[in-house]
Phosphonoacetate hydrolase (Enterococcus dispar ATCC 51266), 112 residues
Amino acid sequence: MSQLPKCPECGSAYTYEDRGLFVCPECGHEWSASQVDEQVTGVVAKDANGNFLQDGDSVTVIKDLKVKGASNPIKQGTKVKNIRLVEGDHNIDCKVDGFGPMKLKSEFVKKL
Ligand SMILES: [Zn+2]
């Protein structure tokens, strides 16, 4: 599982999880995990397993992906570090070793 998010109300890092909700001990704010992902990133992206992705996550590519202008595809199993979520069809902005800056679809990756 990912780290607990900061409180969206007051920015406190001391949040804890209680029965599926996140609770902030400092201001008493409670919220659900699905709301958090939208607030934190502004973009909702899910990987092949339906897990929410966040900026800074590391993922693996689950199938060979053809790259325009490159002679080789990005191989299945390629690790991609420090992704950034963006709006659009290809909702992951990242750097792939050997390929450089690249946009991927979140449905073709799996969170590490
Ligand atoms: Zn708070």
